[in-house]
Amino acid sequence: MALGKDYPGQDCGLARALEVIGERWTMLVLRDAFYGVRRFGDFLAHLELPRAVLADRLAALVDAGVLEKRRYSDAPPRDEYLLTAVGRELWPMVYMLGQWGNRHLSGSRPFRVFHHSTCGRRLDRTGSCPACDRAVPPTEIEIRPGPGADPTRTDPVSVALRTPHRLLTPLST
Amino acid sequence: MALGKDYPGQDCGLARALEVIGERWTMLVLRDAFYGVRRFGDFLAHLELPRAVLADRLAALVDAGVLEKRRYSDAPPRDEYLLTAVGRELWPMVYMLGQWGNRHLSGSRPFRVFHHSTCGRRLDRTGSCPACDRAVPPTEIEIRPGPGADPTRTDPVSVALRTPHRLLTPLST
DNA sequence: ATCCTGGGTTCAGTGAATGAACTGACGCGC
DNA sequence: GCGCGTCAGTTCATTCACTGAACCCAGGAT
User: Fold this and answer.
1) How far apart are CA B27 and CA B49, in angstroms?
2) pLDDT per residue over B97-143, tens digit each?
3) Could you give the 3-state DSSP secondary structure of residue A167?
4) Which of A38, B88, B143, B146 could be a cystine partner for A80, CB 3.0 to 4.6 Å?
5) Which residue of B has its CA nearest to A108?
């Protein structure tokens, strides 16, 4: 968002939340993090956003405690970005917003569908399993390609997501 | 958001949703609409955003079918903005994001608290009533001032929200 | 020694947000 | 009829964030 990313006059938790995750691209970065994306280059290729913006967003999310930057290799030095416990609490909002968009704005052909990995049932619009009758945490969710998925994309993330995948687990490599 | 508000490469319901409600100020406009704000001037005074941005956001939300513009007076000509059924489906996201912000970013003093109007119990973090054990629709929610509310604001919306108020019902005038 | 890869930073150009000023339709008091 | 006030915008110069391309640097690989 341009010119002042915060909302100083709003005495409201929503305004505080939007100051952290309300900027352009940020929610999509988080979505990818839930999908298992951890590395700068993977975010970059999948989201097709300017590198400078990605670097800024990742740093802001780390700063806010939503992501954690962790070194997974010293030679060469490589870092990965992981959702913290605070960040993982955002899953219901990310999921429900995506479902809302699918229902009303996507011609109702879902791009990806989400199943409860332990029982196989497809999640309802609130993110609950109709069989188990409870909200399913992201660690128990399997993402599968849906009928609307774009088959032409060749970036590593799009390719990896063409096969079923458990949320929060890394995307190969 | 600056320079392209959409995410053309993202084959995802979340991206579609963010193109509609992901711009700066838009979620706060929706929050106010749930609180009962309906008129241009009330949004303007409560959100303290530039008039041009408000006009743009309201028009975009009407265009997307999230809000409905309805004439409530012919002389003088006056319109009000109401949430449509599609827009009202966004309540869980607005509520849960606000709760997440309260928990992690607001020093944990909530600005406003939400109760189930039929039984009086305070809603949990998912927007459900602990007593009735179900998700509460916004029409059954009463908003009350919380301990962190700013007592210095004098705009009509802030003043009206200092007394308990049912969501989606108009704020006096 | 040179190339390649991953993960950035720098920088000019663009376009959206800002805030103040202006417009226009109408109601009201005189 | 005339001025004043209100509501809902539109216009416009300025400011600042996003964009995309170029550049940088560390550490293998060749």
Assistant:
1) 13
2) 999 999 999 876 889 999 999 999 999 999 999 999 999 999 999 99
3) coil
4) A38
5) B13
